[in-house]
Amino acid sequence: MPSEDAAPRLDVDQILADPGVRIVVCCGAGGVGKTTTAAALALRAAEQHGRRTVVLTIDPARRLAQSLGLTELDNTPRQVKGIDVEAGGGELHAMMLDMKRTFDDVVLAHTDPAKAAEIFANPFYQAMSSTFAGTQEYMAMEKLGQLHARGEWDLIVVDTPPSRSALDFLDAPARLSRFLDGRMLRLLLAPARSGGRSMFSLVTASFGMFSKVVQKVLGAQLLTDLSGFVAALDSMFGGFRQRAEQTYRILQARETAFLLVATPEPDAVREAAYFAGRLRSERMPLAGLVLNRVHRPAVDSLDAATSLAAADRLAEEGGHDGTVEVLRAHAALAQQAAREQRVAARFTEAFPQVPAVSVTAQPADVHDVDGLRTIGAAISRP
Amino acid sequence: MRAVERPADPAGTGWPARLHVVTGKGGTGKTSVAAALALALARDGRRTLLVEVEGRQGIAQLFGTDPLPYEERHLADAPGGGEVRALAVDAEEALLEYLDMFYKLGAAGRALRKLGAIDFATTIAPGLRDVLLTGKVKEATTRTAGQRRAYDAVVLDAPPTGRIGRFLNVTAETARLAKVGPIKTQSEGVAALLRSPMTAVHVVTLLEEMPVQETLDAITELTQLGFPVGRVIVNAARPPLPAGREVTAAELRRGLAAAGLPADRDTVAALAGEARDQAIRRELEDSLRGDLVELGRPLTELPLLPDGVDRAGLEALARALHGAD
Question: How many CB atoms lie within 10 A of CB B287?
């Protein structure tokens, strides 16, 4: 792989064994194997490095979740049984994020039960806590902050949500807290704070026009619900913002290691490059790139063109059907590998200093602990 | 809303709907497939619109153009005088356009944006955002210019399988928030189109376990929600293996020698190993293909492009889609 020629090799064992590293965040585009990578790394940290590890998964495939004992979504870490930790004293715990429940817990933590019940009943809260594009990212950060605050684990491995873009993981929490703390909300709140008889009694002329349009488009009932939601959340703004900022600082700290996960496909590599740029500008510690599903021919010396030409010659001669098939398959593999190298080079050329490791494509998908162990070994010893 | 009629398939392309919604698990190449479909349906002097709604600029990256604005632009020519246009729908722009159309806002609309009201409105109600996006798609699909339709077909590069049900099910999301008013009317109009025979939701997959599983799940969900499921499109497919037998080392050694290639023990063993891995992979692919066939849906396979999806690759995919039966 050119990534190995051009970039330093990523040594994940060094990261997993380092007691100074307390958080590993796996991020990347959708469909690149983030969840599997996160689970494999967590298992390896527990089994090989004796660390008490928890893996926070967001949306694992059903069979992978089952293999980790994640049969119910109860939003708390459960110990994974039947793994090989006797020697080192490590432990593996796993949990699946329940976005709505995490949001509910945040509300409960910041307000009294009566107010909380009011918030839970509001249709806006219901819409926002279950479908807002960004809530999942925000709640993943929130859960990470909670796990970190409990101080029970040596290492927290986080999978990130399957967002439209990997950047959403960094952007959504800020967007959400900006929104919850924004000018619009304060405008909407102004009447509620002044006694709340008339919803928009104190607002400016331009805002009066706005409220008229909103009334027209959305209807008055909706505005009442919205106003209630905003008023109820008002007491929690400070809390939201403070927590988002705390988690953000943890992500910038030395104890965190970001791992980019990608496959040698143009979209995935482009996402990884965007993300690497962002991490750099946010001063967040990027540890390296894990390039999954890389194809490698077993014979380097035989290139695609030679192999194809030989297959064609043999096919014409006849009598070597088996060999013709093998040579054509080899040519296809070599061609794919060459293409993948060109794609991967787009990242390593842009970020030559970022350590990278390639993981060879597995013939079949991974959905048990043995499979995760194999992947973990492959990431560590390519 | 005008009653929706079953569109004919005059060109006999095998793609009878007018609005083609293309979804699929992340990484399956749904943007490439959507683009190739827009090219295929634009053949023979037809005009199509390729739409994206997630702000990813995937179309621009695929065609190597500048980022697409919120404006229908010429994207590519198709054989026989056809044209593909492209549009990146932005929820905020769509809301402004919508407000302007119904309320003649003009400068007030710009003031609203300055105030953050537009951002606010599209943020607070996630369903609203989707209604605006799908509403714009509906408008383009049903628009007429003079006596003819503005577009013979509209192809939507839609959100991935995990979110497609919620994205299309706009009425459920907005009904919760808006009981009356134009938003409700708008979302009902969109829902009627999306559930009519004018629409087909195609699911793109690879012959890999997770994408196939998500395809099965998405088709179940879409069917339950009442959306017309179109084709299952297998991207980057290799043809099924002929029922071959495993080649022996001796046979391979003779073959390599006959071709004048190195036939030492290591090379023979390595090539045989490659062939074995391939066979395992192919068997899995065949079994996954079987799962998809069992769905009983029209199945289209697009070939794996050895050099990736460049412009020539897109044309090749378009040709494969055009001939789909």
Answer: 12
Q: Does domain A2-181+247-299+342-380 have CATH number 3.40.50.300?
A: yes
Report the residue from A164, A218, A314 with minimal CB separation from B259: A314
Residues 6+ apart with CB under 8 A from A238: none
ipTM > 0.90? no
Please give the DSSP secondary-structure letter assigned to residue B206: -
CB contact under 8 A, A329 and B275: yes
Task: Give the nearest partner residue to A217 out of B31, B183, B261, using CB atoms.
Answer: B183
**Nearest Cβ partner for B27 among A32, A210, A226:** A32
Give the chain A residue nearest B210 (alpha carbons): A61
Can you tell me the distance from the alpha carbon of B148 to that of B194, in angstroms, rounded to the nearest whole number?
21
Counted across chains A and B, CB pairs separated by less than 8 A come out at 203
Q: Given an 8 Å threshold on Cβ–Cβ distance, is B248 in contact with A267?
A: no
In tens digits, chain B (325 residues) has pLDDT values of 344 444 445 455 678 899 999 999 988 999 999 999 999 999 989 999 999 998 888 899 899 999 999 999 999 999 889 999 999 998 878 877 877 776 666 666 666 666 566 666 666 565 677 888 898 999 999 999 888 899 999 999 999 898 899 889 877 767 666 666 677 777 888 999 999 999 999 999 999 888 999 999 999 999 999 999 999 999 999 877 665 667 888 999 999 999 999 999 999 999 999 988 888 888 899 999 999 999 999 999 999 887 778 889 999 999 999 876 5
- Partners of B260 on chain A (C-beta within 8 Å) are 310
CA angle B206, B208, B209 (to 5 degrees): 130
Chain A neighbors of B262, CB-CB under 8 A: 301-302
Does the distance separating the beta carbons of A179 and B99 come in below 8 Å? no
Helix (H, G, I), strand (E, B) or coil at A209: helix
CATH match for B19-241+296-322 among 3.30.1360.70, 3.30.160.40, 1.10.510.10, 3.40.50.300:
3.40.50.300
User: Is A356 buried (19+), middle (13-18) or exposed (0-12) by CB count in 10 A?
Assistant: buried
Nearest to A57 by CA among A162, A172, A154: A162
Q: Domains of chain B: which residue ranges?
A: 19-241+296-322
Other Cβ atoms within 10 Å of B273 Cβ, number:
12
B64 at interface of A, judged by CB pairs closer than 8 A: no
Among B31, B54, B173, select the one facing A131 at the smallest CB separation.
B173
Please report, for residues A264, A290, B27, the alpha-carbon distance to residue A32 in angstroms, rounded to integers and kept in the order given.
Answer: 9, 10, 7
Q: What is the C-alpha separation between A270 and A338, in angstroms, rounded?
A: 18
Nearest 5°: the CA angle B315, B317, B319 is 70
Going by C-alpha positions, the residue among A185, A184, A161, A183 that lies closest to residue A173 is: A161
**What is the rounded CA–CA span in Å between residue B54 and residue B158?**
8
Asked whether B206 and B28 are in contact (CB, 8 A), the reply is: yes
- Which chain B positions have a beta carbon within 8 Å of A330's beta carbon? 271, 274-275
C-alpha B103/C-alpha B100 separation (Å) is 5
Q: Residue type for A190, please?
A: A
Mean pLDDT over A68-75 rounds to: 74
Band (A93; pLDDT cuts 50, 70, 90) = very high
What's the sign of the alpha-carbon dihedral A209, A212, A218, A220?
Answer: positive
Which of A291, A292, A320 is best to mutate for the B interface (most B CBs within 10 A)?
A320
